Amino acid sequence: MSFLDGFTDKAYALMRIFVGLFFVQHGTMKLFNWPAEFPYELNAMSYAAGGIELVFGIAIAIGLFTRVSAFLSSGMAAVGYWMVHGLNDFFPINNGGELIAIFCFVFLYVACRGAGIWSVDSMMAKSDDS
Theoretical Cys-Cys bridge with 89: which of 48, 94, 104, 110, CB 3.0 to 4.6 Å? Predict the structure, then answer.
């Protein structure tokens, strides 16, 4: 499907933006009960996770300090997976952890690849070149 080759950078940017925004929703749900009510009682770990999801999700979506934000988000997702889901069953399909596992690996990829186009990081790099 070589006709899609020209869209690689745009598709990556859209993935980074939307996955970051989806991550933000998890933070706003935990911290503000919006756009849906968080169904569990919050503890210190939940508040920390919500803060990471909110702040780093926004940073990833806009492409600001993208590598660091994505790396820390990936680590938080890995810890969250094993502390909340992985103890119940090994397989994500059985323990309800598919989404957090996907966040973990997508953010690991973003941390390795960087912000790409349509990002604050790329705009700052261009201004440094001037």
Answer: 94
Long-range CB contact pairs, 6-11, < 8 A, 24+ = 9/116, 9/117, 10/117, 10/118
| pLDDT tens over the chain, length 130 residues | 788 999 999 999 999 999 999 999 999 999 999 999 999 999 999 999 999 999 999 999 999 999 999 999 999 999 999 999 999 999 999 999 999 999 999 999 999 999 999 999 999 998 887 6
How remote is the C-alpha of 99 from its chain's centroid?
11
Residue length, the chain? 130
Largest CA distance in the chain: 54
- If you write DSSP's letter for every residue of 39-103 in order, what string do you get? -S---HHHHHHHHHHHHHHHHHHHTSSHHHHHHHHHHHHHHHIIIIITTT-SSHHHHT-HHHHHH
